């Protein structure tokens, strides 16, 4: 199996090293693992592509490249330049430091990389490690992902639905903020919504008198509705969320047509 891996935390991120272990376990001794990851951190870039300017790409080692672009850029670079059109069998994105559940999904470069792979017709999985009080003192805060990651990917490859629709399914995986031994297992969960948790800005004045704005996030450990991703994670389960890039609100199409007709 040929696997392409990327992330949004950057080529030197510890989560990418974890993902490399997972990918090597899946690919096996006769497989190939190719890395194309951002040269610098790209957290929060979602599914953006560098459409208006070029990006530099550099070979760091055999099958290991860094690109000055987003995770979606890296997937495009991997498929069309690094692999010279020799398409991968699977794209893995992560392992992100922090959860990509609930509203975070919409901003996540990790999810954006997997989404681009799906749009290119390649099976894809995004993986993220929820962080919290019980992971911060661990010698390896990615322990849950490192121990359980390969099994999750294998089970998805063996048993999940891999369609060929225009907007192909891809999968978003979040590991709970717990030591590996306390992970209860896997649960399929819808994307949730943290009520009253929003991104905002915090102004600061520089020594030169100029105003700068820092983006601020909301509490990450506020549960979502029962059975949805964050709630499942905080209860000790690995969440598996099937996703598509289609943003149409299909549930209101008929009603809207009737109202406007």
Structure description:
The model has no long low-confidence stretch (mean pLDDT 97). Helix 2 packs parallel to helix 3 (109-119). Helix content is 26%, strand content 25%. The longest helix is centred in the middle third of the chain and has 17 residues, at 143-159. It has a single domain, classed as Survival protein SurE-like phosphatase/nucleotidase (Stationary-phase Survival Protein Sure Homolog, Chain: A, 3-Layer(aba) Sandwich). It is built from 6 helices and 11 strands. The protein has helices at 14-27, 71-82, 109-119, 143-159, 229-234, 253-260; strands at 2-6, 32-38, 57-61, 64-67, 90-97, 124-129, 170-175, 185-188, 200-205, 211-216, 237-243.
Q: What labels would you give this structure?
A:
alpha/beta, Stationary-phase Survival Protein Sure Homolog, Chain: A, 261 residues, nine-stranded mixed beta sheet, 11 strands, two-stranded antiparallel ribbon, EC 3.1.3.5, nucleotide-binding
